[in-house]
């Protein structure tokens, strides 16, 4: 008998002994009428490997299933673990992600001990979602990758939630192209293999809208929204349907159809309120604030954004909270409250490289700038929500959260853009140029084409007013390059579409 076989035989013997003792049976009572007490004694000592017939006899006498006796895994354990995952999901929806992560970790550890791969993967997926909410993007990716490895032998639709989570983590880190690649390659693989799973496809198309919009690939974003709407009737998941409505709203905002966007957000908000999913409900307030800002209703925009920020801060959703604050600062600036806006923005960038340290990219002697919060451009970049995932709080910020090149890069660029505008408006051209350059260096690596074009225009205008015409022309030309075919030069062919 090999070492592994001896170990499994010994483990089986210990399990029989434990179950027999728990039930108060003697070895003779367990053995009869087919076997002897001596046989049971030898089995419990791990000195004999019982036959299937013997195991079925023992399982029947002990009142357990054959599977539970041979593997130690009880169907009751699986049910209990699935219920624990549900409880952890509820905790994530209504409370702090750190607390929910503790519950998911307990399920993961017990599922691993008992050998329940499905329940373990569900717990790891939950841990990834918790890490997304707290802004721990590297940790989130690690958890999602662990799910993919665990389910490597399963059909692709089983792995799609983890792939979607990993794509969102890359999106929040500012890696827009790679996020698109993950989502599009999965869509292609699903369609090429004939696995037209409506839930998996809806998850992927909904997730693709955000990176498409941030890259300026509006046509692809609109098509993804259309396909998501077509798939929705085949999916019975209110949370995913609500997320889809949020994504669709972003494409409508970009087209100037703000009334329709607000109606789509109202549908999402109603579902989230019914489901008591507080983080996603906060995202709805966030996007509605963006819609009102687009319509010029700045008072309502400020109210919605403050509501979103407070809700996210109460859940300690660090990254989302600071991203909302960038949007809020933009509204405050437009309302003439520049001192408040600046006071809100500067702490968010405390952990980013100094603005002046940014080199002048693209060969400009004072490079262009970046992409601002959703509001600033004519529908190019989307509202905070779709700008990927997000951050911490203003007053409730405890200093550990911030925006960096690897954490909320698009919004970090947006914050520098706003600070550049504020400096420009008060006549501090040097500070404005530094912030525009810092924004540009952040955004160039993300591929946020519309934001980059807008920044180049702002920098060009500043340089022209300073009399630096050659540098201004360089900035304008660079901006036109980003504007010419946004989102198409870095993306391959659009993914194949499923039969509808």
TrEMBL record:
InterPro entries: Cro/C1-type_HTH, Lambda_DNA-bd_dom_sf, TPR-like_helical_dom_sf, TPR_rpt. Residues 359-368 have a biased composition (Low complexity). Pfam families: HTH_3. Residues 291-318 form a coiled coil. Residues 387-398 have a biased composition (Basic and acidic residues). It comes from the Bacteria. SMART domains: HTH_XRE, TPR. Residues 16-69 form the HTH cro/C1-type domain. Keywords: Coiled coil. The keyword Lyase does not apply. Residues 359-408, 481-500 are annotated as: Disordered. This is Helix-turn-helix transcriptional regulator. It comes from Streptomyces asiaticus subsp. ignotus. The lineage of its organism: Bacteria, Bacillati, Actinomycetota, Actinomycetes, Kitasatosporales.
